[in-house]
Amino acid sequence: VELVESGGGSVQTGESLRLTCVLSGYTYNNMAWFRQAQGKRREAVAGIYLGAQNYADSVKGRCTISRDNGKNTLYLEMNSLKPEDTAMYYCGAGHAKFRYGGSWSSSSEYLHWGQGTKVTVSS
Questions:
Q1: C-alpha 11: how far from its chain's center?
Q2: Other CB atoms closer than 10 Å to residue 38's CB: what's the count?
Q3: Distance of alpha carbon 25 from alpha carbon 39, whole angstroms
Q4: Which of 2, 43, 60, 93 could form a disulfide with 55, with the two C-beta atoms 3.0–4.6 Å apart?
Q5: Ramachandran area for residue 25 (φ above 0: left; ψ -120 to 50: alpha; else beta)
Q6: 70 in helix, strand or coil?
Q7: Do 32 and 92 touch, CB atoms closer than 8 A?
Q8: Separate counts of helices (H) and strands (E) for the chain
């Protein structure tokens, strides 16, 4: 199984980016975007399971997660970016254990991770 992220970059406050994650080797119904800022813990950004979307409060209204099942590709559209969005962004894939307890936002839900794509937002 391999996940490959792309689409990160350096932007100004208020601009937009679209991150892409291509999954190969297996198909998982549960995928998500996480991010990790320098010196901080990895945190959930958005998740999608069988079409149902979940978002962290910090990005709600500014980000949209989607996937193209035919292409096995996950997307994260990020608008109105802020300096606090600066981080390495990772996509994860797993089996949705949270159906039986737990949360989509727990990194332990995800078996496989990509190498990350860096997002830098300057003011």
A1: 18
A2: 7
A3: 32
A4: 60
A5: left
A6: coil
A7: yes
A8: 0, 11
- Only one residue has tokens 């894939």, namely 93
Structure tokens at 44: 């959930």
Which pLDDT band holds residue 47 (cuts at 50, 70, 90)?
very high
pLDDT at res. 100: 84
Write the pLDDT tens digit of every residue in 62-118. Answer: 999 999 999 999 999 999 999 999 999 999 999 988 888 889 999 999 999 999 999
Rounded (to 5) percent helix, strand, coil in the chain: 10, 55, 40
Instruction: Give the C-alpha separation, 92 to 111, whole Å.
Output: 7
